Amino acid sequence: MRFLFIFLLSVPFVSANAQVKSDADYLREYQERISKEYINKIYIPADLADSHQQLDEVMERDAKIKFMTLTEIEATKKYHFILGRWVIKNWSLDEGSRLSKYMRDKGVFRSDDMAKYILLTYHRYLHGNPLGEEELLIQLAEKYAKEKAKRAAGQELLHSETRKRKQN
Predict the structure, then answer these.
(1) Number of CB atoms found within 10 A of residue 152's CB
(2) pLDDT at 129 > cutoff 90
(3) Crossing angle of helices 111-127/133-152, nearest 10°?
């Protein structure tokens, strides 16, 4: 019983210390990840065209048809938490991969924006429409600039409220 008690008390300290990485360690791991073709035995697309080809291979025919029947805005919104999350997780957009580096080099910095960009252009690709990458990149640059201006002006990006409780 004494051993169990000591063990349970020590677990949070061990796990907390094991998870701390220095900036140098993080940068070294990131540099390794962005050069890999495979991460965790999953192929990482090299660019946007490659990501479209990989989605063609991964998506089942029925799912692809449902995706195509929606407008591009509907498809992007509806599939963000399905296919978009899959893209973020499996293609390591948060932790860093050659695809995330490709997207960052284009000016897309957040993993959610990367997934949205990939889904939107994939929808256009499936319909044979122009991808319109330049317009999308301009829209994202404007979005990032507005957020940066708000931060510089000291405005809150998120809204917070304090709820008043009834006095008894």
Answers:
(1) 8
(2) yes
(3) 160
